[in-house]
Amino acid sequence: MFIDRDSFTPFEKKVFLATPKMHGEELEYIKDAFDKNWITTAGDNVNELEKAAASYIGCKYAVALATGTASLHLAIKLAGERLYRGGRAGASLFGKKVFCSDMTFDATVNPVVYEGGTPVFIDTEYDTWNMDPVSLRKAFEIFTEVKLVVLANLYGTPAKLTEIRKICDEHGALLIEDAAESLGASLNGKMTGTFGDYNIISFNGNKIITGSAGGMLLTESLEDADKARKLSTQAREDAPWYQHEELGYNYRISNIIAGIVRGQFKHLDEHIAQKKAIYERYREGFKDLPVSMNPFDEKNSSPNYWLSCILIDKDAMCEQVRGEKKALYRPEKGKSCPTEILNTLSSLNAEGRPIWKPMHMQPIYRNSPFVNKDGWARAKSNAYIDEGQVSDVGMDIFDRGLCLPSDINMDPTDQEKVIEIVKSCFR
Ligand SMILES: *Cc1c(COP(=O)(O)O)cnc(C)c1O
Question: Burial, 315: exposed, middle or buried (Cβ in 10 Å; 0-12, 13-18, 19+)?
Answer without folding.
Answer: exposed
